[in-house]
Amino acid sequence: MPRPISVGLGSGIGRGQTPDFPRFYYFGPLGDTFPLEAASAQRSQLVSSTAIFRGAKPCQSQSERCRARALAHVVAHGRQLLLQHQLAHSATNQSCNTQLVQHAVLITAVRSSRSDLSAGLTESLGISVSANLLELALTHRSFAYESGGIPTNERLEFLGDSVLGLIITQELYRQFPDLDESRLSPLRSGVVNTKALAVIARQLNLGQFLRIGKGEESSGGRDKNSILADTLEAIVGAIYIEHGLTIANEKVLEWFGPLIESANAQGAGIDGKTALQELAAARGLTVPEYEIQEAGPDHDKSFTAIVLLSGERFAPGEGKSKREAEQVAAKLALEVLNARTS
User: Fold this and answer.
1) Which residues are known catalytic residues?
2) Is 253 in the same domain as 138?
3) How far apart are CA 171 and CA 254, in angstroms?
4) Half-sphere exposure of 251 toward its Cβ, with a 13 Å CA cutoff?
5) Which range marks the domain in which residue 52 is found?
6) What's the number of CA atoms in the CB half-sphere (13 Å) around residue 287?
């Protein structure tokens, strides 16, 4: 039950005097207070307006009846203010409750999404990494831009590139003690390059877990060599941060071991263009020349190179860069020339 309304009158109320209204009136069970501007210059105006509100002329005698009417008007106004305050407070609470529920639903969905991503990718990678690091490693800049500028995987990619380079270089140095720098360097390039990294990324099914923007999604970004290679480097960086160099070394060699063996078997340690030039000089042939053709949009170009040697055109080599295409074309020409002498 609400408390009885309490209205106090100050002293000095008498015939011909203006009632000295208190500064605060208290209403309802909550103990809310509502300030009432009752400066002396406004007191008589309040009583007069109350009389007019009741349909009577301003009272000059300040009788008990007039004072009661004035107080009744003030109390009614106070009740109205209290009701408005309670309604506004209730609406605010409902709005806050709704926002809390929506936020809770969003948080649950995000946690569920992270959990699914972590479980699925952990199975593919064969090693556990925290959900936050995995999410960051998979966030392409196109997705970050469309999401209001959230962090991208580029810092992890930068770190992973160095970690990957160190691990592969150390392994090549250990496996091939008889190769000098001139042979080790191209061998490493045959293992650590965009195309090779993209092949491993596809084997790990990284494409299906990528967080890319709508534009990249529509243009086949999940299967682009450059995006897949960058993402794999970011994953290596994440593994290094969480588990250290020893575990990162084991995991990288597990992925790249077969590629190292294949590159060595195929002579990737030998620069194809240099080898072709040396063979041409030894056989008295002209210096090799290369015809280059390019195709595709600027963001996803492909190149084709054809070797011209002593008037003969050899099979074309393809790659995502001019250098890569020329190397492939040179090796194809080498195979043909070596086969002629065998």
Assistant:
1) 161, 233
2) yes
3) 12
4) 26
5) 24-97
6) 0
Nearest CA among 269, 196, 266 for reference residue 233 = 196
Q: Which amino acid is at 271?
A: D
Residues 297, 196, single domain; the answer is no
Q: Would you write out the chain's pLDDT as a tens digit for each of its 342 residues?
A: 444 444 444 444 444 444 444 444 434 444 444 444 443 444 444 444 444 444 444 455 456 666 656 556 655 666 676 667 666 666 666 655 555 545 444 434 344 356 666 678 888 899 999 999 999 999 999 999 999 999 999 999 999 999 999 999 999 999 999 888 877 887 888 889 888 999 999 999 999 999 999 999 999 999 999 999 999 999 999 999 999 999 999 999 999 999 888 777 665 556 778 878 888 888 899 999 999 999 888 877 889 999 999 999 999 998 888 988 998 899 889 888 888 865
CATH of the domain at 246: 1.10.1520.10
Indicate whether 296 and 226 sit together in one domain.
no
235 and 335 inside one domain: no
Residues 256, 297: one domain? no
Contact present, 305 and 290 (Cβ < 8 Å): yes
> What tokens appear for 110 in the block?
């995000």
Q: What are the Cα distances from residue 200, in Å, to 61, 191, 197, 207, 340?
A: 100, 11, 5, 11, 35
Q: Is 316 domain-assigned?
A: yes
Model-wide pTM > 0.70: no
Pair 237, 156: CB distance under 8 Å: yes
Q: What backbone phi and psi angles, to 5 degrees, belong to 269?
A: -75, -10
In-domain check, residue 139: yes
The answer as to whether 104 is a domain residue is no
Q: How many domains does the chain have?
A: 3
Among 201, 230, 265, identify where a domain stops. Answer: 265
* Residue that is last in its domain, among 53, 76, 97: 97
Q: What is the DSSP-derived secondary structure letter of residue 318? A: E
